[in-house]
Write a structure and sequence with these properties.
InterPro entries: Cro/C1-type_HTH, Lambda_DNA-bd_dom_sf, MLTR_LBD. One of its GO terms (molecular function) is DNA binding. This is HTH cro/C1-type domain-containing protein. It comes from Capillimicrobium parvum. The structure is a single chain. By secondary structure, this protein is of the alpha+beta class. The chain folds into two domains: 71 residues, 434 Repressor (Amino-terminal Domain), CATH 1.10.260.40; 175 residues, 2-Layer Sandwich (Beta-Lactamase). The chain has 13 helices and five strands. Strand 3 and strand 4 form a beta hairpin. It is elongated, with a radius of gyration of 22 Å. It starts with 9 loop residues before the first helix and ends with a helix.
Length: 265
């Protein structure tokens, strides 16, 4: 167990979040409606913030719920946001909503991931994307970033691997920058070290002026083309639900739509 004395000070954590958001003390004080002097005292440890002030500052800094609990613990308060297993009875409404989206998107691929990209649920269409992947990469908890970029995963079948790889790595970099999550940072370092295609410039082409496509070889070798959307629970006040993302892949042309319907009829 980590000794209380080893925990980061709440003022240090607040300062780190403020700097991550590229805000000065004065900027944050003005946004939060508190004095810059009091905020300075909180960051230096000269003043202990109330839980209400901590949550107010965290709201202004857009701190994720998991890390808001960390701020409260660092200040000696109890966490404010519950964290349940997705299997808990209280999470049934969340599970039902996820399944409704997955089923409604069939036969096109859709999947649910947690904050570190571990696969939690998927519909039938995802099997078309994962066809031929090393079964070890699909063993729970399968990680979708590893699965997409590993040479024994989807990477050999992705026709625009340089473009898609750059897109995924940029998403991960943004997540790391916004969350400060150590697990995400380690995942980014791992998958960024996977080899890219020869001559990879890592940028989107002219055809991607609207959205970066996923161009992947189908089970019969034909090219399937998708664009994707991400859905989150925008009003979540529970940690697990707030960290869920549903990624839905839409056919980018009629040939892809027809192929998916034929495969999964």
């Amino acid at each position: 167990m980590t000794d209380v004395a080893e925990r980061p000070r709440v003022g240090t954590l607040l300062r780190d979040w403020r700097r991550r958001r590229r805000m000065s003390q004065l900027d944050l004080a003005l946004e939060a409606g508190v004095s810059a002097r009091h905020l300075s005292f909180v960051e230096t440890g000269r003043s202990r913030p109330s839980p209400e002030l901590l949550l107010h500052l965290a709201d202004e800094l857009e701190v994720p719920l998991r890390e808001r609990n960390g701020l409260l613990l660092a200040a000696g308060y109890a966490p404010a946001f519950d964290q349940r297993s997705l299997d808990d009875p209280e999470m049934r409404a969340v599970r039902d909503a996820m399944q409704l989206v997955l089923d409604g998107h069939d036969p096109y691929p859709a999947l649910v991931v947690d904050r570190t990209w571990n696969l939690l649920a998927a519909n039938r269409g995802v099997a078309v994307l994962t066809d031929g992947a090393d079964p070890r990469l699909l063993e729970p908890p399968a990680n979708c970033m590893r699965l997409a970029l590993h040479r024994r995963g989807l990477a050999p079948r992705i026709r625009n691997l340089g473009e898609w790889r750059a897109h995924l790595l940029e998403r991960l970099r943004r997540q790391v920058a916004l969350s400060g999550d150590g697990e995400l940072e380690a995942l980014l370092a791992e998958v960024a070290a996977y080899p890219g295609p020869p001559g990879d410039e890592g940028h989107a082409g002219a055809e991607s002026a609207i959205a970066v496509p996923l161009r992947i070889a189908g089970p019969d070798g034909e090219e399937l083309r998708f664009i994707s959307t991400v859905t989150t629970f925008g009003t979540a006040v529970e940690v697990t639900a707030a960290e869920l993302s549903i990624e839905s892949f839409f056919p980018a042309d009629a040939a892809t739509a027809g192929a998916l319907r034929a495969y999964l009829r």
